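User: Predict the structure for this protein chain, please.
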Amino acid sequence: MHFTEEDLLRIRVVTEPRAAWEVLVARQLSRSPAVHPDFARWWRRAREVPHGDFRATAVEPHWDAIARCVRADATARVEAALAGGFESVLTGLHRAVRWNAPVLEIDHPADLEVHLGGAG
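Assistant: Here is the predicted structure, written as structure tokens:
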């Protein structure tokens, strides 16, 4: 993902969970062959939830915990930005993500090039 200076200025830290995003991530996680042990119990149950009931059954009962995790992550990222700038935030996103300015490289099965061009 190629960033311009304008894109970098638009980076924001989300402080509250977004329902649609949480459902998407949870649905993908439920299809994974394995998950972190902290999510194992949820994962076993989520794999059996019909698609139409997924949000109500697999996400909403855990909303408070999701919100706490999102807030804690936001706090950590803001502290990292204050201490080392947004470059330190981009550098520490995930083990499958690398910041090689001005490109954010993400390990993914599809080899994609995304140029934000100031629209990011």
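Residues 58 and 110 are 28 Å apart (CA to CA).
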